[in-house]
What we know:
Elements: E1 4-9, H1 20-32, E2 36-39, H2 41-47, H3 55-71, E3 75-78, H4 86-98, E4 101-104
Helix pairs in contact: 3-4
Amino acid sequence: xxxxxxxxxxxxxxxxxxxxxxxxxxxRRLERKGIYDVVNPVNYDLEAGVTKENYKEKxxxxxxxxxxxxxxxxxxxxxxxxxxxxxxxxxxxxATALGLSIIxx
Length: 105
């Protein structure tokens, strides 16, 4: 069975620890369903060394990568509070333009 590629989007900036706990919990929840190949931007941010101190200088790189990842998915999962995040709203708009299925937490 081919799994659906799903991207997790939600608020990061201004949240404690970039809201990583919510992203990681969602990733585990979605993986347990057994039908998703989960794309979690938090994992890439950790690999890229994004911190509270350097996130502004890495922002363009991260958002570019995130938009490319959304384009590779067929589903986007919107975490609670996504509508208050500029980045998550941009990902939502891109997903809508691409006709992705959208799941809201």
